[in-house]
């Protein structure tokens, strides 16, 4: 049965495409944060170990919510790392960097996501009449801003 929630089909399709990119970046960032949680070492080990765990737990929740938003718009979310890498703009971390580099990478990724979300939200608000998706994405943006803020404090 077609999704009939007051949004044109072409706009639903457009927003699912945007949400797929958001889902992909969230999954890539989740995997990277989890990897860093497992591999962090050094003077601030326990503090960063717990910080990364808190952040990947938040991302895990976000991932589920993004996938469910895609379903609410009438589509099936993607679900393989190959698809996430194809649709995302973030890159995996293929090394085991120092604490400093881990923090810098995660900070950069969150800032990238924030900038991309701002663009997507503007498009969704102006072009698709999908206030639910715009509000949903705004909450995600605020979450990434908070995570970036915390990570940025470690770079001072």
UniProtKB/TrEMBL annotation:
Belongs to the Dps family. PROSITE patterns: DPS_1, DPS_2. Transmembrane segments: none annotated. SUPFAM superfamilies: Ferritin-like. Gene3D superfamilies: 1.20.1260.10. Pfam families: Ferritin (PF00210). This is Starvation-inducible DNA-binding protein. Residues 49-76 form a coiled coil. Keywords: Coiled coil, DNA-binding. It comes from the Bacteria. InterPro entries: DPS_DNA-bd (IPR002177), DPS_DNA-bd_CS (IPR023188), Ferritin-like (IPR012347), Ferritin-like_SF (IPR009078), Ferritin_DPS_dom (IPR008331). GO terms for molecular function: DNA binding; ferric iron binding; oxidoreductase activity, acting on metal ions. Residues 17-154 form the Ferritin/DPS domain. Signal peptide: none annotated. CDD domains: DPS.
